[in-house]
Amino acid sequence: MVRIRRPSPQxxxxxxxxAEEPTAWRYGYELCRQLDLKPGSxxxxxxxxADRGLLEASWDTDVPAGRPPRHLYRLTGSGRQLATELAAAxxxxxxxxxxxxxxxxxxxxxx
Amino acid sequence: MSxxxxxxxxxxTWGVVVAWxxxxxxxxxxxxxxxxxxxxxxxxVVPPLxxxxxxxxxxxxxxxxxxxxxxxxxxxERLLAAAVAVLPERRHEWGRAVIAELAEVQGRPARxxxxxxxxxxxxWLPLAGRWPVVTLVTGGWRGGYHRVRVGGRRGGARAAGVxxxxxxxxxxxxxTGRPTLAxxxxxxxxxxxRCRPRxxx
Lengths: 111, 201
Description:
The structure holds 2 protein chains of 2 kinds.
Chain A: H1 9-20, E1 26-27, H2 28-35, H3 39-51, E2 55-60, E3 70-75, H4 77-88, H5 92-102
Antiparallel strand pairs in A: 1-3, 2-3
Helix pairs in contact in A: 1-4
Chain B: H1 3-30, H2 37-62, H3 75-85, H4 92-102, H5 108-124, H6 131-140, E1 148-150, E2 153-155, E3 165-168, E4 177-180, H7 183-192
């Protein structure tokens, strides 16, 4: 049986940051600076969210000459729904984290 | 070809020729029995030609001209590109995304921090058993003098001192790196890749 656990605090922060303007496309580096996350933490989170259909990505081709196209991110409908759930239960975050540490076999992120 | 590169190529060529001539003369003098005249001439000429070709190729390809793609990349971007090059095809898009974001980061320290963290992110993506390749690429990158921490171990550090060169065929192609590595890098890879480190999340 697959149990659902709460995402990590960093993942929650990313989801909530993206949910601030659900329809707006965001850059990865912008999210890094906003959340004070390193790319080494942010990008795996974005990859997992995208793999689970919670995040959609697109290439921004409207960049200055000589710059590579940048990746843009925003939440999908499922992602917005998850953001709503996460925002509605902020107090449970700490409990969820404790549960995750005590039971490493179950995993929202590895499901 | 710039004057500096021509000069480097000429110096490297003469360095190889003189070094080989000295080495061969000493070896021939001390050989018992000594080589025949024809054999000596052949061995004096043919091997240095090959060495000269190899050295000139290395010098000229390492110092590629403007517009070749590589000359526009700084070390952090090269490091990141090397890591992205070993990602599975389906993950290349994410690797390119990290490289693209690096272009927006200003300042050398910030770029290094971003690149190292980005490498960590790239290496934690599913690699389908490519850890030896990762270690080879990171260990051989720019001569292997840079230590890259892989899961608590010093991956690639044991390849320090190994001369390596990474040629890229394009800047935005997802990092099609073609590393040139010495066997010592392989030895380092073998020791570093016995187990896959546990992801931090």
